[in-house]
Fold Polyamine aminopropyltransferase.
Amino acid sequence: MAKSKMEYWFEEMHTSNVKMSIRVDQHLYSGTSEFRRIDVFDSPEFGRFLTSNGNVIFSEQEEFTYDEMIVHVPMAVHPDVKRVLVIGGGDGGVARELSHYKEIEVIDIAEPDKMFVDVCRKYFPDNAIGLEDVRVRIYYEDGLRFLRKCQDKYDLIINDATDPLGHEAGLFTKEFYGNCYKALHDDGIMVYQHGSPFFDEDEENCRAMHRKAFKSFPISRVYQAHIPTCPAGYWLFGFASKKYHPIKDFNPERWESRNIKTWYYTTHLHKGAFMLPKYVEDILKEEE
Amino acid sequence: MAKSKMEYWFEEMHTSNVKMSIRVDQHLYSGTSEFRRIDVFDSPEFGRFLTSNGNVIFSEQEEFTYDEMIVHVPMAVHPDVKRVLVIGGGDGGVARELSHYKEIEVIDIAEPDKMFVDVCRKYFPDNAIGLEDVRVRIYYEDGLRFLRKCQDKYDLIINDATDPLGHEAGLFTKEFYGNCYKALHDDGIMVYQHGSPFFDEDEENCRAMHRKAFKSFPISRVYQAHIPTCPAGYWLFGFASKKYHPIKDFNPERWESRNIKTWYYTTHLHKGAFMLPKYVEDILKEEE
């Protein structure tokens, strides 16, 4: 086929000195919302993938890792989640994983970017099916503004926002963590993207995030996953909690009894995900 | 500086459809040995790095992960390692980590490629210092041929060979695993590079490797690390053992008492490294 002879590549700078390139079959969509440029590509290696301002947000071949790890880890710890707030998450992948849990009554999604939701509905039906769950309500609002109205309202807040420097900068401020704390019930948990710790350019963001969460919540731990399209293939998540400890209050039997099908998460891996490399432990400890 | 304006990149195909690029400051060395082309580069992000036939073998900024994980994991399990064989390992990084252990009496290195050793001595003194340990003996021989002469001789064999398809193909055969078994004492351990499981192109190698080790040793487990220059940033190691189990016989207190300085390995991480993603567990189980 002629297709395989053409050199057609998407490239992402992971730092100014390291680049990841993905061979592309087709550029399916390009649009600019109020917040960002959104593109959709088909690729032989990662399947279909979406970019925001030129950064890969997720791909068909690996989104399971991110969505499973940000949902099942807190859900296997908190014994009774009824009300969940997802900040960002307009693609539906997080909602899809949440929809496996029968005890959840409300899944609120605060996603300011309606174009992002529409693009995902059209091009990523396997993610967007999560938005069809009857418990889901989408609020096309800025996450920080949405949170300011909330008090003692949620059992779990998932911050699915990815870009600490762009339009989502407000979701990485001290005020944001304080508002999350206020919006949670007394035994609430908040999980968030903690970035990639390996490259020097990313390390300061990673430090600042831990500093803020550690000051705002009595329990603040970090866990990890391998996500190939992330810088260095390595991603951290934050687990900030008012009462439950991610390991001491983890109930593997209860989670296993649900029979949720996964590709990445296991109850073994749950524990292993909190066992971090020495250099990451050192970075975090220095901010505590 | 003009340097920062020049686009000068080393590129490695991780699959035919995914590429990693590293900005280069200088190309310090290029030579072709009997076995392969060897190059050395300086880069702003990974420091100095070495390539073999165009594949990154290690870089200053991340070699610690690989060398620590392949040495400290078995050393924290086996209670009394006196004789070690390293297959490949001519750069000295594995020997450097082994040199922290006083009880070791012999570190034999079977490295056919003398040019590789010479290049590492010149350009990577922080690795090659491992070769200066008085217990180290370098045999410039093919690993498989060296092994055929060995019987009941070692407590630990570390297969540091990286290229299952090139000149080191013999080190990934069924005969190789059988010869390692024979060369080990009754309570010996063998560790080896298990490759990256994420991309389809790598998965079959990963399966074949587990199949062979699982048939050759009573205990055969796989553990993981994040190594940014590896395909998908994700690397597996094999732990094949005649007697000791990597978790049940793991002695964290004994290892801690040695006070070895690390950047990646911790005794927590030791356990976590064996807790694998579901899709990796499934691949391995299918070959058992």
Summary: The mean pLDDT of chain B is 93. Residues 200-216 of chain B form the longest helix (17 residues). The two ends of chain B are 56 Å apart (CA to CA). The longest strand of chain B covers residues 184-195.
